[in-house]
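Researcher: Here's a chain I'd like modeled. Treat it as a single chain, no partners, no ligands.
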Amino acid sequence: MLTRDRAVCIRTVDYSETSQILTLFGRLSGKIRAIAKGSKRAKSAFEGPIEVLSCGQIQYSPAYEGKLATLTEFQQEPARGQMRRHLFSLHCGLFAAELVDLLTDECDPHADLFDHFLAFLQDMDEGRLEGADRDVLIRLVLFQLVLLYEAGLRPILSSCANCKRSFGPGWSETYFSHAANGLVCRDCEMSFPDKIQLSTKAAKHLTDVKEIANADAKTLDEIERVLVRHLTGILGHKLKMAEYVVGVSISPGGDGNLERG
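Model: Modeled as a single isolated chain. Structure tokens:
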């Protein structure tokens, strides 16, 4: 029985000279690992190798007895290609795909997460973010918060994760602790050696996600560093694309010519 869905390719591995093993994230199917036989042939049904971040309608034969699913059709949607012309956007897209792969389980649908992921990729690919590095980083930060929520790993950002005191102007210092899974106040920070002190701006924006769109480049980079450190702690290993989205100086014009900070 064949299954149809809309999906984004989030990982590819060469299987042979002519085939690929793909990890696809489908709206209705969730994460799928499938073999695309003959996809690397120029005259295959897939019209050439399938690339990471490509999106379209798929048809596949579901996996059984521990075997891979078999992809029989992938009708890729037209792309303007702006994301691949802008280095920082491409790096952020690949980082988002890496996180989706690592934080979702096979055959576990997350329709809302798929919609957010696809909207993020489409906005970059169609130039809706005007090529501005800051705008891309804002969207990446927001997407990571959605991903953590959908994965059941939402950090505590409205109060101290330890004593439950609500965040407010009375906090003289604010910290984030992976071990505590959220913000930690000054009175509790000594119990969490892994904590990171947050600037006043970063703490304010993290506790009110509506404010993230107003964050300056320095504050966005600080927030992204905190999220990457938290995600690394959750997963227990280094994230491959993390170094390409943190520690860079964001160019005001968003020309993609980024330098290491």
